[in-house]
Amino acid sequence: MRRLLSIIGAFAILAVTQASAQSVNLTGAYRCIQTCRLGLVGNSAYITQNGADLNLLNEAGESARAWPDWFSPRTRIWIDSWNEGAVFSPDGMLIQFDNGTIWQRDLGVPTEGRRRK
Predict the structure, then answer these.
(1) Residue 17: inside a domain, yes or no?
(2) Number of domains making up the chain
(3) Which pTM value belongs to this model?
(4) Model confidence over 67-97: pLDDT tens digits?
(5) CA–CA separation, 45 and 29 (whole Å)
C-alpha cells in the first residue's frame, strides 16, 4: 500500500510539473542582437509555441524544435538539434542561448501618434 501511494504521488508531481512547465508564451518575432550566426546582427528570428512545444527559426534561417528544459522548465528551453539550451526572461522579451547569442522580442516600429492640426 505504501509503495502504491508513493507511485501515485510521483505521477501527481510529474503531472503538475508538466502542466505548469512553461510560464510565458514565447510566440513571436525576435531580433538577434548579440553573437549572431554568420554575423547576422539585427536579422529576424521567430518562435511559434504550441503548448510546451516550440518551433524556432534563427537569424540564419535554420529551423529547430525546442521544449522546456527538464531541470528548469519555467526559465529555460532545450534545443536538441542545436545541442544547446537557452534562458528566457520572465516577460519573454529576451532569450539568451548558451553560446552567447541573444534574441530580443521585436515589437515592430512604433506607430506615430495622431498629428496635431
Answers:
(1) yes
(2) 1
(3) 0.74
(4) 999 999 999 999 999 999 999 999 999 999 9
(5) 6
